[in-house]
Write a structure and sequence with these properties.
Largest sheet: 8 strands, antiparallel
Strand order of the largest sheet: 3-4-8-9-12-17-18-19
CATH topology of the largest domain: T-fold
Number of helices: 7
CATH superfamily of the largest domain: ApbE-like domains
Oligomer: single chain
Strand content: 25-35%
CATH architecture of the largest domain: Roll
Helix content: 25-40%
Distance between the termini: 41 Å
Length: 350
């Protein structure tokens, strides 16, 4: 019997496992004019098959509609360039182009691919944007949901297309190159980059804000009360949504990768959406989720995926060697073991 558990249709293929707890602060004391009182304004909407939420600290009479229009425009632009669910996107057109020639893209797409290749090198291929054909084969991409696991032959045939060293990128002029019939999937980095792009747009107008896209976040400044933004890290339990940890952040991005919100079961075996580029199969270790903090949400997004692929032992070793603030939640017979790197500890509230 096949049991499908896919809780959201996300174009970036990676369901986030962080949710936000924001307590709206009171107005700054001593302000008698309503236009000078700072409060938290919130806008939200849909993007990339998931949702977004943006909170800014601004005067009480601030116009939120203009904020939402600006945020939506940034997100729509990124989706039109990096979605594998849209045949007319830059990424989709590159994926269907012939190998052996440079393909022109915007500087934004080139920037994201360049960042992804850097992280592939840093993680020795645990993060690999060319794993897309296998993500699709296992039913977690823009194609059909599968009714049974693919065969070894199908997996091995597509493994020949996987390898980040088959991709090159240049900035002048911005373009991509593939040495073979490769397929790029930016699912584990584009959503984080979208958070960064929105945050960078807000930075010219606001000194305090919280941006969230599909669970990936970036926080800057503080709430009107002077308190840090507080983020709740979700316990990786399928049936419920409970808080595992609460952290305080400022000038930091947060990304989480997990195996419990997007998967299918067949004959009692659970197949996660996170694919190991070396085996072509879903991960099968005890690591349930990993949360990474970094100034860049795009980088945090990709690193969280890499650590999730590596598992609790190799992932922790890499996080320590890179001095990453990271929280690992590892499955036990009863509950989850928490493994926290020293760099993560200063952010903890509970």
């Amino acid at each position: 019997m096949l049991i499908i558990r896919q809780f959201a249709a996300v174009i970036v293929g990676l369901l986030a496992t962080v949710f936000v707890t924001v307590l709206v602060g009171s107005a700054v004391s001593g302000c008698s004019n309503s236009s000078e009182q700072l409060v938290i304004h919130a806008v939200s909407g849909a993007t990339m098959g998931t949702s977004y939420s943006v909170k800014v600290v601004a005067p009480k009479d601030f116009d939120q509609q203009g904020l939402k229009s600006n945020v939506q425009a940034v997100l729509d632009r990124i989706e039109s360039r990096m979605s594998t669910y849209r045949k007319d996107s830059e990424l989709s057109r590159f994926n269907t182009s012939k190998p052996g020639q440079w393909f022109d893209v915007t500087d934004e797409t080139a920037k994201v691919v360049a960042l992804g290749l850097t992280i592939s090198q840093e993680t020795q291929g645990a993060f690999d944007m060319t794993v897309g054909p296998l993500v699709n084969l296992w039913g977690f991409g823009p194609g059909k949901v599968i009714s049974k696991a693919p065969t070894e032959l199908q997996i091995n045939n597509l493994l020949t297309q996987v390898g980040y060293d088959q991709i090159e990128v240049r900035q002048t002029p911005p373009s991509l190159f593939k040495h073979q019939d490769a397929y790029l999937d930016l699912s584990a980095i584009a959503k984080g980059y979208a958070v960064d792009a929105v945050a960078d747009t807000l930075g010219s107008q606001f000194s305090a804000y919280l941006v969230e896209v599909g669970g990936e976040l970036r926080a800057e400044g503080r709430k009107p009360s002077g308190e840090n933004w507080r983020i709740a890290v979700e316990s990786p339990v399928v049936e419920t949504r409970d808080i595992q940890k609460v952290i305080k952040v400022e000038g930091t991005a947060i990304a989480t990768s997990g195996d419990y919100r997007n998967y299918f079961e067949q004959d009692g075996v659970r197949y996660s959406h996170t694919i190991d580029p070396t085996t072509g199969k879903p991960i099968r270790h005890r690591l349930a989720s990993v949360t990474v903090l970094d100034p860049s949400c795009g980088r945090a997004d990709a690193l969280a995926t890499a650590l999730m692929v590596l598992g609790e032992e190799k992932g922790l070793a890499l996080a320590k060697s890179m001095k990453l603030p990271a929280l690992f939640l590892v499955k036990q017979e009863q509950g989850f073991a928490e493994i926290i790197t020293p760099e993560f500890e200063p952010f903890l509230i509970q």
